[in-house]
């Protein structure tokens, strides 16, 4: 008997279009069919990986690979009190008349909260009372888990997909966070509220959420609010979770209203090729990515980028020998004379010896000097601490950070690029920031960023689109815009599928009007 491609339950039908997909019912059939066509993916299996997604035919950049709605959505693990329907922050002004939990309005009380957990909490003799609205409240840790568990009785199809998702409980049980979850979620639901779920079921759901959930933005019930005013939480999307990780991915997902996600190709994907997402930020350095993947997803990344200590020639993890030696000497409280004696002005690039080991030592590619991992970690942490305290609009402090670190971090180190990215949104924004020298500096930074982005986030990505737009604008301010018109058109392609209400969508709209104006202007000039 054929099995459903997603939940592996007995199939009830086969796709009449391609005859290659079988389904348990209409819900999973809808994840395969896109109007008159079939979505261009299939699920395969391989040892040590499990199920993963590949292209069922050639896929073009920007093409929709699939669309999926979260089977369950809830607050983040450490959440301040939020409305349990729209996930916006609440402050106790309105309480659910049935369960006494803080909500936005009666409209939200009658939403997903009523459909899911309200009946459980309203049945208590002593209703739960929340009084602190400024700090994270442990009660909200259980909501996403509870909503998934309730699908066992409410929606068998969704529950069947959750049962197959990986939870990594054998690895998770070794973390301190495991004990927090046992008390605040497992004990709370099974012993305090006496819900009929086994500890194994609860822990499985906790694990699948922590390993597989995605950030989702939930719009208001009328779907008219801008994205920054939407509630934010985590959603479980079983099909999206099938994407394996690569530090240079070939697809991206885009948040849509109502917990929906669209997955689109960013570069051409050939038939039979695996479709990749990135679980961690692709603009981070290798040490940060490898550590995050090991601790959060319990695997060691072996992609071509992580295996190359130059990060495919971008040097996003590179340091400078002279600056590291100076910081080592200052850290050891050496005298000024010894610091001067030690300095031989070696400007070599310092790279990881084994880039896939986040505890590796580093070595200068010119003088061969070895730097311990703790030195690298300390230097990077010092930069991150200062950057975290610095306003992203503080021109003086951001430029100071570049100057202070220019002899320690390589010019394209991920932290240096992060600072430069903040600066390109300051330069050219008002008359004082439009001097020739500042605009030239902005152009230099944009080109530097694009050169790296072309490698680590290639194709139709928002990072490239936003940067190309800024490069065009600054060049136009210097009277060089006509030469870069193709760049503006490419930026429009990169941002064409952004969700309404986002910053990226606003930039896309500006580009649209700019191109219309420029096309009309060119037409009028030709007419003359």
The dominant shape is globular
Computed structural class: alpha+beta
Number of helices: 20
Mean pLDDT, as a whole number?
Answer: 93
For the biggest β-sheet, the strand order reads: 15-16-17-18
Q: How many β-strands, per DSSP?
A: 18
Which range best describes the helical content: under 10%, 10-25%, 25-40%, 40-55%, 55-70% or over 70%?
Answer: 40-55%
Biggest sheet statistics: 4 strands, antiparallel
Binned strand content: 5-15%
Which residue ranges are poorly predicted, with pLDDT under 50 across at least 5 consecutive positions?
none
Describe what you observe in this structure:
The chain is of the alpha+beta class and about 525 residues long. Helix content is about 40%, strand content about 15%. It is built from 20 helices and 18 strands. It has a 4-stranded antiparallel beta sheet. The chain has a 3-stranded antiparallel beta sheet with strand order 7-13-12, with no helix packed on it. Strand 5 (about 40-45) and strand 6 (about 50-55) form a beta hairpin. Helix 5 (about 145-155) packs across helix 9 (about 200-210), helix 17 runs antiparallel to helix 18 and helix 18 (about 460-475) packs antiparallel against helix 19 (about 485-495). The radius of gyration is 26 Å and the shape is globular. The N and C termini lie far apart (about 70 Å).
């Amino acid at each position: 008997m054929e099995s459903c491609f997603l939940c592996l339950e007995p199939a009830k039908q086969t796709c009449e279009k391609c005859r290659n997909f079988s389904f348990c019912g209409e819900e999973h059939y809808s994840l395969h069919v896109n109007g008159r066509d079939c979505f261009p993916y299939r699920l395969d299996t391989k040892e040590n990986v499990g199920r993963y997604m590949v292209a069922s035919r050639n896929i073009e950049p920007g093409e929709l690979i699939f669309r999926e709605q979260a089977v369950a959505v809830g607050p983040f693990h450490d959440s301040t009190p939020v409305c349990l329907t729209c996930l916006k922050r609440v402050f106790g002004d309105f309480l659910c008349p049935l369960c006494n939990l803080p909500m936005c309005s009666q409209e939200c009380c009658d939403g997903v909260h009523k459909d899911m957990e309200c009946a459980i909490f309203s049945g208590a003799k002593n209703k739960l009372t929340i009084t602190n609205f400024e700090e994270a409240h442990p009660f909200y840790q259980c909501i996403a888990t509870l909503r998934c568990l309730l699908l066992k009785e409410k929606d068998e199809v969704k529950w069947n997909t959750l049962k197959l998702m990986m939870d990594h409980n054998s690895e998770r049980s070794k973390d301190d966070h495991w004990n927090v979850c046992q008390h605040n979620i497992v004990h709370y639901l099974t012993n305090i509220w006496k819900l009929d779920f086994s500890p194994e079921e609860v822990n499985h759901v906790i694990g699948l959420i922590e390993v597989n959930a995605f950030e989702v933005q939930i719009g208001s019930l009328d779907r008219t609010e801008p994205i920054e005013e939407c509630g934010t939480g985590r959603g479980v999307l079983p099909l999206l979770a099938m994407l394996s990780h690569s530090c240079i991915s070939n697809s991206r997902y885009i948040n849509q209203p109502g917990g929906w996600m669209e997955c689109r190709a960013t570069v051409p994907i050939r038939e039979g090729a695996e479709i990749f997402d990135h679980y961690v930020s692709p603009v981070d350095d290798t040490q940060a990515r490898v550590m995050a993947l090991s601790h959060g997803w319990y695997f060691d990344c072996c992609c071509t980028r992580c295996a190359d200590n130059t990060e495919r020639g971008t040097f996003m993890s590179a340091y400078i020998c002279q600056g590291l030696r100076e910081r080592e000497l200052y850290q050891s409280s050496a005298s000024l004379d010894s610091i001067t004696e030690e300095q031989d002005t070696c400007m070599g690039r310092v790279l990881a010896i084994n880039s896939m080991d986040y505890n590796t030592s580093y070595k200068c590619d010119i003088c061969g000097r070895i730097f311990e991992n703790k030195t690298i970690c300390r230097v990077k942490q010092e930069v991150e601490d200062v950057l975290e305290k610095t306003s992203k609009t503080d021109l003086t402090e951001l430029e100071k950070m570049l100057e202070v670190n220019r002899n320690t971090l390589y010019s394209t180190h991920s932290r240096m690029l992060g600072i430069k990215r903040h600066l390109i949104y300051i330069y050219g924004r008002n008359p004082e920031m439009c001097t020739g020298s500042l605009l030239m500096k902005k152009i230099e930074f944009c080109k530097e960023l694009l050169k790296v982005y072309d490698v680590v986030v290639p194709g139709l990505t928002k990072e490239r689109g936003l940067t190309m737009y800024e490069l065009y604008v600054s060049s136009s301010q210097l009277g060089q815009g006509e030469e870069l018109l193709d760049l503006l058109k490419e930026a429009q392609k990169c941002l064409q599928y952004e969700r309404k209400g986002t910053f990226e969508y606003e930039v896309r709209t500006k580009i649209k009007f700019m191109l219309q104006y420029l096309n009309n202007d060119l037409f009028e000039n030709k007419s003359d």
